[in-house]
Every structure is written in structure tokens, then in C-alpha cells.
Task: structure prediction
Amino acid sequence: MQTPWDHRYAQRTQRMKASAIRELLKLVENPEIISFAGGLPAPDVFPVEQIREACNRVLTDHSAAALQYGSTEGYLPLREMIARHTSRSGVEIKPENILITSGSQQGLDLIGKVFINHGDRILLESPTYLGALQAWNQYGAEYVTVSTDDDGMVTEEIEQALRTGPKFIYVLPNFQNPMGVSMSLDRRVKLVEMADRYGVPIIEDDPYGQLRFEGEHIPGVNALDAKLHVQNGKYTGNVIYMSTFSKILSPGLRLAWIVAPDEVISKIVMAKQGTDLHTATFNQYVAYEVGHGGFLDQHIQHICEVYKERRDAMLDALEEHMPDGVTWTRPKGGLFLWVRVPDVCDTTEMFPAAVRNKVAYVPGESFHPLGGVTNTMRLNFSYCNPEKINDGISRLGKMLKEELYSA
Amino acid sequence: MQTPWDHRYAQRTQRMKASAIRELLKLVENPEIISFAGGLPAPDVFPVEQIREACNRVLTDHSAAALQYGSTEGYLPLREMIARHTSRSGVEIKPENILITSGSQQGLDLIGKVFINHGDRILLESPTYLGALQAWNQYGAEYVTVSTDDDGMVTEEIEQALRTGPKFIYVLPNFQNPMGVSMSLDRRVKLVEMADRYGVPIIEDDPYGQLRFEGEHIPGVNALDAKLHVQNGKYTGNVIYMSTFSKILSPGLRLAWIVAPDEVISKIVMAKQGTDLHTATFNQYVAYEVGHGGFLDQHIQHICEVYKERRDAMLDALEEHMPDGVTWTRPKGGLFLWVRVPDVCDTTEMFPAAVRNKVAYVPGESFHPLGGVTNTMRLNFSYCNPEKINDGISRLGKMLKEELYSA
Result:
């Protein structure tokens, strides 16, 4: 007799769905398809030789420690390096407030584990990062949403949403995934003040902040909050900040970090102990070796040059190939832009036809926590070179023209 | 005003405790202390040059893929290699049934996530692996325990425990952590039959199975179950099997795997997507490069020779230095043995004195899911060389003699 496994799953398992994006990515593995669907960094900018040298140095000088179990908090020199780096953006952080995670997705999971009871409401943007929804659905989260426009999360809607009693606010202020927009300074200040007034914590997810191609750096939500909350040189504030090496070094190393006040970080560290003991020691040593001499600063500049050219190529191609009635965002950094097509087009329904036409995007629907928006798509501009970008957008434009003509 | 973080944590967070072992390990970082506390492989057996060559080959031949995001399931050639290897022990496994995890601890966490509702009972050995308790406490698990003796989990007690309706059975049949004992073939067969009769799944955790120094290989619980449950070449059985590269290659790479029937593995894969997207791609490529030519077979032999010598050193030292009334297990493999001291000694209370005497162990109490046993300790024999082992056991013996004399 077979085991009736399906009677054994936890309730939360019934809410789990395979990520629409990851399933799409499997469909588009065919190299003939020009894919704007992934969130993939360009492999051309991986600093392969620096990583090779780092691996060699780590194995020569530190093999006994780097191949061994490590501390849950993470490799101290790496945390010190991150703390130094963060200080440059105006937030004084101690290494003790930093936890190294296996990618930012794990940061989201751990935050869910530590904070979310079944049925808790999370206040977030719509559209927002799909991975956060996927992480927090597993803990039974519900969502209260506010809109996002070209200046980021619409703070005018926040107070109403705060009065529903959310557990925390989740925001991606820089080059937001999926829209590519950034929150204005004004709105950041308002967000911090409002969260402070209601005593509701903010999770600031910042994977793309360093990838700014133009315009001035805008102080982070954590930096603005720190002005209110540093006491005796100790940060006691309202914000948990997350960032990652995935977009500035390599996602395949799975290295990211969380910054949180003392009492909070100790809870997240405990959750991580039970979850996977610690992040890969070897990878942390390698990232430190690559980064500690300042290499990442110049490398980020290089990435920005490459991505700026690709963004420009995509904006030009959109201008050239898109039919009337199609609009898009004009990101000043990051990896993505967001396209809105006329209401008569359903980008989810169009997707199989796009794949037949050998071009792929992510239908916008899945980024909306409460669903209901079907005329948007996320386009990634970091992965393909300018020529491919032009080809792909041309295919997409042709398709959309046919769609609109037949509608 | 400060944010009242402590009012924001989820209920599960209140159950979280820092691992006793990991906290102990911080205490014993002083190099003068001879530590039998960790579960650390000997760094002398890390195959540093093989890993260096593998890193170089991966970065030369596969950098674009190895540094990029990867599939949640894991690098296919690595899963194929594991499948081939598993087949040698008599269980035909397809790569599709294998998920690569960030260490076995993540396997335990994902199993908890997919199966455990708050209040669910898990049937396990007492004492058992602490990390499993730590993972599953976070999902609100309760425990039903059966004893373990020199032949492993006492199957005579299982039926009674099964009638309490546990969600699953958790067992470490080979060189169990913490006791070092292995389950006899007889008992394995009984366990599989009983689980089958009650329709209760088994989680078989096997990190040490390949580290056998003497005696015959005993078929795994999964192999015995497969005899009942292979239909048309497809495994539809009752067992989720876990193993790891931590003890045969390097724990710092954080690479382990789960094997489960089709429908179950797909749920665990979904849970992993939301948890950390995927295991570090680079590390998977490196492990494949190190392992695929058969190197691990000879390497495991080498590890066994080193550890056997250390186990023998520890058994000899115990014989020489321990006072009457102290007993211990005689493992045929693995990393640990288990010492029982007279009831008047409380190994938890003794611990600070041990550290003052510059020797460390793990008090046995924390391995007992329901607590209550205070006269045991776990000793690791893989990490220290024979000379240190003799010194450390001598210090421990002296201390115990004083303890007993003063009692």
C-alpha cells in the first residue's frame, strides 16, 4: 500500500505555489528565445579572475577555517567590511548588527519566520517583489497594499493602510523590482515618520541601490530612521535593512546580509541556526578576499556602465517598436523596467504567443499581491546585450501591434 | 520613542533557543581547550588541492553558469552523480527525486516546513540529533520518544508510540548522533514494516553512513522500504532519505541532499524556492568536479583510516583514565561516542569546571527531546589528533574522579 503523503502535509504547504518566474525561466531555456524574463545579472560582468585569485588565496591561507563549519552570524571580517561600507552611506552599523544570509531570499524567509503569525497583515507596494510574497505566503501572511508610481510607494495611501494594524511595512526604495522606480526623498521621510508614529517596523530591501547609472544618491530609509533613533551611538530604530552580493559580485555564491537592531538580529540569528546553521564559509571568505581591497567599488562602476548602455538600448527600442498606448518606466538604475500595455491586452494570456515568437517577459500579474492587474509586464535589461535587446523588443512590439489590431 | 520589537515577534519565535552546542563552541574557542564538543570533521582531511583544482576548472569552463542563479532542484550533473552513487547501495534513485540543500540542517528545516503543523507529534529516538529538534521546534512540533541502545532505536517501543498518531518517524540508523550506535538489520526491518502498517512516513537521516571503519554495511531503511514500494521502476515509498557532503568533503561548502518520492520532492522544492531560491551554484559545480571521477571513494577510505585511529585512541584513553562506573559506546564509524557517568554527576553542572580544566564535551541533556537525563555526554573523536585525545580524556577522567570522590 502507498503512503497517503497528501494527507501528511502541513496547512502552509497547501498555500505554496511554484514561482511563476522560475517556471517561466524553465520554458525559456531555449537559447533562441530572447529572454527579458529573468532577474539575471550579465555573466559578462562576473569578475571571474578576481574570484579565481580569491579562491586560491583562501585555500592557501585559510583552508582549515574556510572549509569548516562557521558561526551562524557569519565571517567577522566580511561583516566588518559590510559595516565599513554601510557607514559611507551615513548609517553607522556595527558588525554585531549584521547577519550573513544565503541570498536575500533567505533574509526574507528568516524575517517571515521571526515575525509572521498565520493571518498577520504585511503592508507593501503593489506591484512588489514576488520573492517576498513567496517567502511570506509560507507563514500565512495576508497583505495590505498601497500603490507605487514613478516616485515609488505612494505615501499618501500609507496612513490608511497603517490603521489596519500591519505587522511591518516592506519597501524596495531603490530601482524597485518589478517597476524600476525609486522612492523620492520626500516620500522616504514621510514613510519613516509615519512608521515611527504608528510604531510599525520597516523592512527595507535594497538589492539594487548601488547600481545607480544617473542622478543623485537618495538617503536610505535606514539612514533617515537612524537620525531619529541613534542613542549613545547605538542604533535602536525601526528598520531592518537587507542587501546582497548577488547583483554586485555573483548570485551563484548566494551571499546577502541583514542589518537589524541588537535584540532583533539575535532573534534572526537564532532562526537561522535552526534553518541552515550558517551561510557557506568558503563563499564568505572568497567574497571578503574579492572585496576588502576596494575592488567592488570599481567593479560596480563597470557594471553600471554596461547596464546603462543596455537600459538605453531598451528605452530606444521601446520608443522605436512599441505601438501607441504602450507606456514604460525610465529607471535610473537597477535591472528592470515596467511596461504597461492597453487594457485589452492580457500579458499572461499573451505569454505563450511571445514564447512562440521567441521573446519572453514576466507577466505583471504575479507581482500584485492581490492580483487583478493583467496589462503589465516586467522587462529585464541587464542580461541581454544591446543588439539582442533591440531584436527582442522589436519582436514584442510586432506582437503587441498584432494583438491590438485583432482586438 | 523605540519600537516595541518584542511585541512584534511571531509565536514560534518565543520557542526559539540558541543551540546549546553552538553556544558552547563559542566558549571553547580558546585554543588551549581540548574540545570534544563540536561535530567538526578533521581539517587535516579536507582535500584542499582537489578543491583548488575544481575551483579553477569550474571558473575556466563554466564561470557564466556557476556564478549565476541556478535551478532550485540543484545542478543536474551533481544530482546524477548522487543518484549513481546511491544506486550502489541498492536503491535505484532518479535525479528528479533528489534536491540539493544548503547542508542537512536545511533539509530538516524544509521537511519541518512542508509537514509540521503546530502541535504535530514527531516520533524519534531519545537521545537524538539536536539540530532536528531545533529545526522542528520552530514549527511547533511535539515529540514522542523511544529509547536507543547499542542496537539503535528500540523497535519494541515503536508500536506503542505509533499509536499516538505521529506525523512522521525520524531516525539516524548509522553511527547515530549523539550516541554513535547503529541500528541492527533486524530492527531496521521491523521499523519499516511497522511504519508501513501504520502508514507513517520515515525520515532517514544518514550523514555518517559512509564513514564505517569496521563491520559490514547494513542496508539502509530506504533500501528496505524500496523492496516493498518500487512499482514499475518508480519509488513510491514511505521514506525520505537525507545525506550530506559535510562529512566526506567539507562542511564549509554547505552541500547536502534529500531523496523523496516524486510528489513529495516537488513540495519540498517549492518550499525551498521560497526559502532561499537554490543552493550556491558555484559550490555544486565544485563538488561535482571533485567527486565525479571517483575521488570521493578513495577520500572516504582515507577519512575512515584517520577517524578509526582517533576512535581507537579515545577508547584506549577512556579505558585508561575513566573511574569505575563510567561506561561508553563503541561506535564502528562516524564521529561521536557517548559516555554515561554515575547518576550523582550532572554533566551540565560540571561543564564550567571542565572548561576551567581546559577540556570540553557536550552535556547529554540537550539531546533528549523531553529532557530529564543529566548523566551523559557526547564526545567527538574526529577533530583532535590521538595525542590531544589522550590528554583531553585524561583531564576529563581526573575531573570525574574528583567529582565522584566529593559526591
